[in-house]
Amino acid sequence: MLQQILHDMYIDPELLTELSDVQKHILFYKMREEQLRRWREHEAWEALAEAEGLRPPKVKRASDKHIQWLLGADGEVWVWIMGEGPGDKPYEEISEELIAERARLQAQREAEELWRQKEAEITNKFRDALANEKARILAERWKVEMEDRKAAKVLEERIREEFKRKEEEERKRGEEQIRLQEEQRARELYWTLKQAQLQSQASEKEEREWEEQLRRSKAADEERSRRAQRARDEYRRLSLRAIQKGTVSGLSFMFRELGQSHEQEARLYHHFPGPGPPLPLAMPVRTWERPLRPVSREVIVRWFKEEQLPRQAGFERNTKSIAPWFHGIISREDAEGLLENMTEGAFLVRISEKIWGYTLSYRLQKGFKHFLVDASGDFYSFLGVDPNRHATLTDLIDFHKEEIITVSGGELLQEPCGQRDSPPDYHLLFE
Question: Which residues form the SH2 domain (predicted)?
């Protein structure tokens, strides 16, 4: 099953939900190793093709883009932090002065532009008025045929002075109006820039919150890396344990190949001789074509009868009694219901409907764990967790009564969970 997943680089979502967190980490680690192996083969093939001239070598283009930093007297990159240098004013005071100066200059520029417009308007207004008045006077003078030109000139001068006085008054009123508008505009620009500064500070706060979220994300990534590392350490530990304790399983499998009995296997397991001739053990002979995956309960029952019963799956060692931990085709919810009122370490083994194998359901202090047991070959092993291969299902259960399943969880099989109903849930398997 694991080889098929690595070949397709795909796992059925329903099968993925049956895996524990540790199993998922190990499966991801295996798939990543397979990706690296394929990539290295591709790179080696590319290098060989270039060496043999089958493909022109790749030429990297040189880039003329570069960055040159300003260096200080100490040879390091020159850095100045506003408000923290020798003799610098506090950052808040510098910021207030810059805002006020920018507002003043902007208001001054706008006031000068307004004054130029106002001055042109006043000049045109009084120039036109004076011209009209002169034309009126000349028309009246020539109409009444005034002989006293001096009186007309005096009158003209008096009128000129009057208009000049009114022009000066109008200029003063315009200047005062422009000055008031300049002050008002300066205040408006000051508050606009002040609000922009406050919004900038709010943006800095959002940036700090984003950095905090980024830090938490990195911490979560590191935690996943640590879990993957623990899974790899567990894989190595169980591999070493398999080397140290794998003699029994290896000899058990060898005796099965030679047709030896359970009694000889038990003598090797407990390291003491026993009298009596060996009894032959029936090996499964497959007389049907097994599908790639279970498709129905009827197919699962046939698989168990034709392949698992000859291998004594679900029986206690060296007896014809069904093991108390063995159950039939039951769901995850039914298994958790049976383990609900039991203490930590309680367990049961049920036939899986997802793969050709079993599911070991384990009671935690708070919650449950479910481990898939692959039985599609000539051995039994946890899918993605335990590298050890066991000759029988009972060997796997007995092994993990002494050895934990995973390092992170420390699961040790202690109390088997038996049947609650009558007839038992496995009665269809033995009919």
Answer: 325-417
